[in-house]
Amino acid sequence: xxxxxxxRFALRGSVDFxxxxxxxxxxxxxxxxxxxxxxxxxxxxxxxxxxAFGPPWIPISSWVEDFLFDLLRWPGSGVSTPVGTxxxxxxxxxxxxxxxxxxxxxxxxxxxxxxxxxxxxxPPRKGWQRPLRVGIVQSVIPDMEDYARHxxxxxxxxxxxFRARQRRHLASVMEAVNQMLQxxxxxxxxxxxxxxxxxLLVFPELAVHPLDIDSLILPFVRTHKCMVLFGQVYHRASAxxxxxxxxxxxxxxxxxxxxxxxxxxLVEQGxxxxxxxxxxxxxxxxxxxxxxxxxxxxxxxxxxxxxxxLSASICYDATDLALASxxxxxxxxxxxxxxxxxxxxxxxxxxxxxxxMYQGVIVVNNGQFGGSSFYMPFGESFHRQVFxxxxxxxxxxxxxxxxxxxxxxxPTQDKNTPPVGEWKTPPxxxxxx
Length: 433
Description:
By secondary structure, the protein is of the alpha/beta class. It is built from eleven helices and 13 strands.
């Protein structure tokens, strides 16, 4: 318990263990604060999730969460693992340090952190598997012209008429996705046993305003129990005075547990490489990428099977070959949220990356330019392009289904076991997991 409290203090910088976020001095305006609670309540009712320590981008992995929950367990917390000795806890920490060293990318010099995406409904029966049905949305508003008209307002807060138009567009998009899912179910030859119709929905870069997340995106996640990945309109990294303006995408990950029920976890992926167009804004956004997140999608009820690993980048970050080099042996599906007028370049990039990284590559571009695509490293050329949305400017919706078992068991370079089925021969120096 004392070790856990010490580590929690190191993360939060405050001994007020019961409050939801660290205290900040010098607030520019009055705000509500939780009253000081009794020490017993502080000790036996603490929450150790990522949201207790800071914004969604904070680089705290699932491992740290689980470690703190184990140390600071209390009656009713739902932790049932055996209580170990201090030597056993120290051994866990030493092994984690070794693991983090391996997760550090030597080429991009990035910290790669894992976030579990467990079952979003009650745990399935033994031997059950689920696919990954992906939906992509080419929304249009805001587009590049909209941002050009708001160079001094990158957060898009100073124009109520435009905000109403943007919100109306997003609401229409979400309703269209619901209708398209119903249409897709009419021609599915085999319906899923869990009753779900989608597992991941992806939007372009800068597609969703932070003020519209709770009212328009969150209800969709709760209804369909699916993950959503979307680029956020330029926003502040935190509520602290002087926080930098950043460009990021947000993972919304539903999860279910016997103790907490259904919850939606937020994980924010920052953008480190800004374009010349972004340099023109006032205030100017800041490069911001504390970590590269790898979402571990649990697809089999057997915990011995490794999860399907997904990672995302925002537009210009995807052109970093150092990042692609580090991800090729750590990832299964690479998603790029884009607002890019050079569709031809990104087409060729995704065509090349899907083989050099030897994994699925999905590019979701703004409907102003189109060109969203999904490629897989299959042997036949007509199989590699899963979909490619042409035409501009138009909002579009497309779906594809991924079989996690195929990607998890991709062929290796072992000469005695050549690729079987639809896979292309692996690229040189590709090291599997």
